[in-house]
Amino acid sequence: MQFQSLEQRMLHTYVDTFPPFVPLREAPASEESQRQLHAFFEGMYQRFAADPSIWFSELHEDDAHPYRFNKAAYGKPKLIVDMRKVLKTVDSFLGVLFSLGKEGSLEGNILVLGDTKGVSRKHRAVMAELGLKLGGLAMPTSSALPKGSGPSKACVLSHDDLPEMFAAWKWMASRPGASMLAFSRCMFDPDHSYMRDVYRRLSGCEGAFDMLERYLLEADHQLVDRRDGGLTVDYVKCRGDAGAKLGHPAYDHNYTGIAADYDHVIVVPQYFMLRILRMRDILPMFDRMDEDLKDFVIEYNQRCHGCDFCIQRHKARSSAVKRFCVVVEHRGKRYGLCPLFPGHSYCWTSLDEKRVKGIIAFLSFMERELFAT
């Protein structure tokens, strides 16, 4: 997608990661209230992305990091600062909306608020752009009024076009375990994986995603939603200590499977990465693979290019360390394959049927050769 500015690129990440509407059927807020809140946030993110000047008077030329695992190599240290500034600006606003819902009281189709001095002039202006009305209103004495707000006047939040959304707003901001992420992405049902729905769309081929997911679940992988509170989905099997913490897929030593994640500052933010263990055992088994799996490994495995990182990493243990490179032959050619950090190369921004068949074949081979009991 082409962006007109850095700010537009970053604001579009909120559109990218916003899930489709899936309500909680039996909730304190009606399905219509949930639907209206979802429509509010969806429209808000689209509005921000379409017109970054709502937030920023000065726009930067569009740019993004091309190297997912070595951002410093791009040579633009200020870029990530500028990108995160955009995210921080919007997240600060989301925090205000979350706090208003948490601290306010529901009175019909409005939120009755106490002290709103913490709502900045800029935030008030943006709220007005979004159709939110924040102001004083004479009211009868009510048990819904916040303590200290007085019996006859309160500050209230309302919206003419989406009047019923505030029941869902209040519930999502104040229910047990409420989080700004779930609130701002309208993740109403705690048992539903909304990020799974997001990555299904971002995969570029929903049929291929479904094929992969079907295999993973049938092969007893566990779906883990929002690892460490992030925008992640993992399908994993534990190979280490039971209950071991699930870490980053490129460096985790306890789990196999696949992870989906979103890195806001990369040219194409979403990625799907295999969780691979014991690659130094897998590559020497190359001759046991069928031809299609060999093609897959040759296409994606990192070649040894003589960086000698493996030697530097292990020279303290032995003075006779050799390169970890595994030499294989395939279709009349020789390849030197590196077994280190395989997640860096078995990593994709999209899925298709051919790629998914290779992923399934690789995970099945790893299961059969290394972990079968």
- End-to-end separation in angstroms reads 47 Å
Instruction: Please summarize the sheet with the most strands.
Output: 5 strands, antiparallel
Count of individual beta strands:
11
Give me the strand/helix succession: HHHEEHEEHHHHEEEEHHHEEEH
Low-confidence stretches: 138-143
Helix vs. strand class: alpha+beta
Task: Indicate how many domains the architecture comprises.
Answer: 2
Strand order of the largest sheet: 5-6-7-8-11
Index terms:
single chain, alpha+beta, 2 domains, four-stranded antiparallel sheet, 38% helix
Summarize the structure.
The chain is an alpha+beta fold. Helix content is 38%, strand content 15%.
How does this structure look, described?
With 373 residues, this protein is of the alpha+beta class. It folds into two domains: 6-184, no CATH class; 194-371, no CATH class. 38% of the residues lie in helices and 15% in strands. It is built from twelve helices and eleven strands. It has helices at 6-16, 31-50, 77-103, 121-129, 165-174, 180-184, 194-202, 206-218, 279-282, 291-300, 309-314, 353-371, and strands at 105-107, 110-113, 132-138, 153-159, 222-225, 233-238, 255-262, 270-275, 326-330, 333-337, 347-348. β9 and β10 form a beta hairpin. The longest helix is centred in the N-terminal third of the chain and has 27 residues, at 77-103. The chain is elongated. Residues 138-143 have low confidence and may be disordered.
